[in-house]
Amino acid sequence: MKFKWLVSLGLVVCLVMAFALPMCAPAPAPPVEEEAPPEEEEVAPPVEEEELAKSINIYMGTSPTVDATYAKFIEEELGVRVNHIFLSGGELDARLAAESPYHSAEMIIGAGADSLAHGKEQGWFVLYDSPAWEGVSEPWADSDHYWVSLGLYTIVLLGNEVMLDKAGYTLPDSWDDLLDPKWEGELVMATPPTSSGAFVFLMTVLQIYGFNAGKGEEGAWEYWDAVDKNVSYYTKSSNAPTDLVGKGEFPLGVASMSNVADRIEMGYPLIWTIPKEGVAVDIDAACILQGTKELYTCQKIIDLIRTTGFMKLVGNAGRVTMNPEEAPSILFGTEGFKVIPNLDLEWFCREQPRLNDEWYERIGRKAQ
Fold first, then answer.
1. Is 101 in the same domain as 241?
2. What is the CATH number of the domain that holds 136?
3. What's the predicted TM-score (pTM) here?
4. Residue 5 DSSP code
5. Which residues form the domain of 63?
6. Does residue 294 sit in the same domain as residue 210?
7. Contact yes or no for 282/339 (Cβ under 8 A)
8. Can the peptide bond before residue 46 be classed as cis, meaning omega within 30 degrees of 0?
9. pLDDT tens, position by position, 296-347
């Protein structure tokens, strides 16, 4: 899998289509002698569309709340009931590997770049050159037509406003601030081997404290060894810290952006920020699984994802969409977010298994 693209602050991808109109009418054809009308040729009847499945199984990896909105939209638009199973990034990879070559789901919505790279390498996906995605390139669609991207996402630093005010603290604005001893036992986050969102945090740490600081990977592990002293425990999913912080179990958390806006709307006293150093980025993609018996229905869902209606749901999940003017991110508007410079997503995808193993060796605590 090749990700030959860089993302920067305020990234907006615009597709412009030009339609040319004829400048003048053609000259009339010269008169011809009347001829006997040719015998009518037998014309093949128009090809009828296949029948959509009544229901379909989809692995989804955004969040249970967001996944339910996607499933509802698909059913409303196509009349297809979606049986969706939420799986975090690590869980999704493990499920696909265990089931291969016969998967229990027909497709995936919400796969990260790491899962996409592994899946393409293993041959788990079906190629589909969707007419709805014609002319769209990475990071919004795979150049080989194996996946399409719903949007770009990242992690945020969360705080419980009530708890912070009571302690006389403010929400940190730098990743350095998480090393302060006053946060000992007050921080919650997910574990990279089980969560794509947490792996985005690992990418963030590696890039800021390792490669961009000229210290290589060791600089990143030094940072994580230090921040680990303040982590109370690790969750399996990067959505879990949002609820734990929102409910007042912890004042600080590093979490996926997926449920943040929803929980704030529900009344949770959450505040959030992108620290000044920036963050790494990942994609949220959809693809069709090999062996599906509902290929036509899966293709129609891929087409549907490209519509403005679906993209608005993606923006409401906080993602930065490919058409932010029509479908802005509820968290970041049309401007996006600050991405760490020199980020090589292809390298991170390739090295993910090794980095996750090293995280376990160095940090050693299993997800709760």
1. no
2. 3.40.190.10
3. 0.77
4. -
5. 55-153+282-316
6. no
7. no
8. no
9. 999 999 999 999 999 999 999 989 999 999 999 998 998 888 999 999 888 9
